[in-house]
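Posting for a labmate who doesn't have an account.
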Amino acid sequence: MQTTFAQLMWSHAQQRPDAAALREKSFGIWQTTTWSQLGALVRALACGFAEAGLKRGEHVVVIGENRPRLYASMLAAQSLGAIPVPLYQDAVAAEFVFPLNNAEVRCAVVEDQEQVDKLLELRAQCPQLARIWYDDPRGLRNYREAGLASLDSLIETGRAYDAAHPGFHDAELAAGQPDDVAAMFFTSGTTGNPKGVVHTHFTLLDRAAAGAAFDKLTANEEVLAYMPPAWIGQNIFSYAQWLACGYIVNCPESASTVTIDLKEIGPTYYFAPPRIFEGLLTSVTIRMEDASRLKQWLYRVCMAVARRVGPALMDGRPVAWLDRMKYRLGDWLIFGPLRNTLGFSRVRVAYTAGEAIGPDLFTFYRSIGINLKQLYGSTETAVFVCLQPDHEAKADTVGVPIDGVEIKVVESGEILVKSPGLLKQYYKNPAATAEVLTGDGWYHTGDAGFLDAGGHLKIIDRAKDVGRIVGGPNNGALFAPKYVENKLKFFPYIKEAVAFGDQRERVCAFVNIDFEAVGNWAEKRNLPYAGYTDLAAKPEVYELVRDCVEQVNADLGHDDKLAGSQISRFLILHKELDADDGELTRTRKVRRGHIAEKYQVLLDALYGGKAEQFIETAVKFEDGRSGTVSATLKIVDVKTFPAMRRAA
């Protein structure tokens, strides 16, 4: 019985040697790697690692986009009992220092010159980093640094080592056990240094298999791997489940070609955080604004039918014959071509997770015939905790506990999980491990929520972030910042939001506009602007955002528990929140505490009743340069609504 990642890979190579395992687009052409070719590559890399002195239990950092040879490098390390540690390829060099030193990393495999330069820059801070291998040689011809070599040279060395030690690889492969550590993933570090989440082969593969069984995944699925491999969501979908099911993983040529590659591949199994689905819908909205009046009218008429009929059809509920015919006509005219344009014409199962998704956004995709569902999980739970069954997809829940999972909600409202997929530990951090894992096997998620009457889990916010309004007419009212922020982000014109209010008399917010969506809106109204800062300061844009905020307030006014979380004042930030500036994590989670500290002068102005405030902020540009952005920001009061109790 195959029990490790590498053993599963060899099972596919033996049973289906000529079947496609991976595809990569290179210079516009899709190149296929079969399971037998992958096996030969993994064998050579594993033997090359062994010749370089890589030992069982040692960590190997892997940095880059989704690339077949990087996947093979992870499998090769696992073949020897070593532990791959994927890191975010878009991180700045300084963000690598803690993981490299914490995991005592001696060997690294990276994609290209950009990542090589980052690691070479850090060698003084990480002296143990002795060996760096790169996949793409472009720009590296004249590099002569010690310990730097190409993956091609590692492969050649490995083949020679394999020939000289014919039984070595197979013996190392057979020595792997399900309880061996398989990988380590570093958390996003919203409150300090990231923590290394240690997972075994068993925890990752058990949850991968449970998720596959839930959605009846087979070897015939097609997956597009375009999110960072360091994010466990991408790692589960395009690595753990890939090996558990044996389906085909497709690697785009670059980040700029993902949309085109998505259409060419037509995945059957798709995963993306809500911001990706928001971006796709924003692009559709912009295109429709540019369309002829006839096309706009046809789109509005067909989408009205879709919103009324589509979700019922997706859920298997009865639909009148006439409505069914109208929907079929709409599918022929609008929905089918739209699915094809988005690259979703073959999607059988699509998932979103990580943040709440707006009900309108969720309904849009299900209305046009895309089986979009939600799931709940985290790095520590190997992702799969709750999934939405077909015909039970709801915008306000994250699904039901799947096979092997138990959930309980403690008196404080925090959700606890017991699952075969729980982390083994936080690396070198027993105190943090003890905080989240109880003696009887329950994991503290840190999320607040409850199970509804149908057994579906609802998430309110992070438990530690749920606060109270103090003083004023809403004294003692519940404040859930993430819930409020997500409601704001449901609007296509708002990209990010940060809400404040715990232990204060009222709620105030920072807003980032979506530059593309608002820019298109401005151009339609002949409103000139010179970049993000200028556009964000326009009075017309403030009125646009004010309308969005007041709609959120009106909605919150209908919620007994969260009516006190209505926003009383807001401002539009003069710059986009950026992970490079420490304001977001690499998974685009808001670092609220850091933002509050960095923009304390703006918070003081919001709560001090000021009408405007000057701010100057240091920023890092994409080319590595540093600079400042300054502006005088307008602060706007918005309408709030009295709490309206729902009828019993």
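Reply:
Got it, the structure tokens are right above this. The radius of gyration is 26 Å.
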